[in-house]
Amino acid sequence: MDSDLRFWLDQANTSTYFLNQTTGFVSAFNGIYKTIDGGLTWNKVFNQGGRFICFPEPGYGYVLSFNGILKTTNEGSTWALINKQLSQEPLDLHFATGHLGFFSIGNEIYKTEDGGNSWTRTVKIGITEERLIELHFTDENHGWACGFKGTVLRYEK
């Protein structure tokens, strides 16, 4: 195991995602790591990491990094920063498909339908001090957002 990974897994803001029984990823503060042997060994595949990683469909992966949103279209072989001019740090990110995704900043939710190339604000709740900290979608038509102060919003297309 990479010694950097062992150290950073003890820290907050790490996320793990396995594609199958052998191939998985860890996104940590100091980078993105990949295993192809069920977690016995790990290799750093990108020098920037974040606090959330997901692969909504084969090939497509996203990381909510500390500088924006990272994307891969080849199962994590390469990563690119796709959204780097955000007004604040996003609180959560969720993709229902490889192209349809949402992120929250403060009391707002933004949506993409083109894999993160463009984003539009879809929700702004009136409670300005509420922060939407958790997003979850069961499919592209149904989702929920939870706020720090107990707000729960439902998305239905």
| CA-atom Rg in angstroms | 16 Å
Instruction: Please give the share of residues in helix.
Output: under 10%
Give the neighbour order of strands across the main sheet.
1-2-3-4
Work out the helix count: 1
Describe this structure in words.
The chain contains 1 helix and 15 strands, in the order H-E-E-E-E-E-E-E-E-E-E-E-E-E-E-E. Strand 11 and strand 12 (120-124) form a beta hairpin. It is mostly beta strands. It has 2 domains: 1-57 and 69-85; 86-157. It has one helix at residues 3-9; strands at residues 15-18, 24-28, 31-35, 43-46, 50-57, 60-65, 69-72, 80-83, 92-95, 101-105, 108-112, 120-124, 132-139, 142-147, 152-156.
Ordered list of secondary-structure elements with their pairings:
Elements: H1 3-9, E1 15-18, E2 24-28, E3 31-35, E4 43-46, E5 50-57, E6 60-65, E7 69-72, E8 80-83, E9 92-95, E10 101-105, E11 108-112, E12 120-124, E13 132-139, E14 142-147, E15 152-156
Antiparallel strand pairs: 1-2, 2-3, 3-4, 5-6, 6-7, 7-8, 9-10, 10-11, 11-12, 13-14, 14-15
Provide a quick synopsis of the model:
The protein is mainly beta. It has one helix at residues 3-9, and strands at residues 15-18, 24-28, 31-35, 43-46, 50-57, 60-65, 69-72, 80-83, 92-95, 101-105, 108-112, 120-124, 132-139, 142-147, 152-156. Strand 1 (15-18) and strand 2 (24-28) form a beta hairpin.
Write out key terms for the chains shown.
globular; mainly beta; four-stranded antiparallel β-sheet; 50% strand; 15 strands; 157 residues
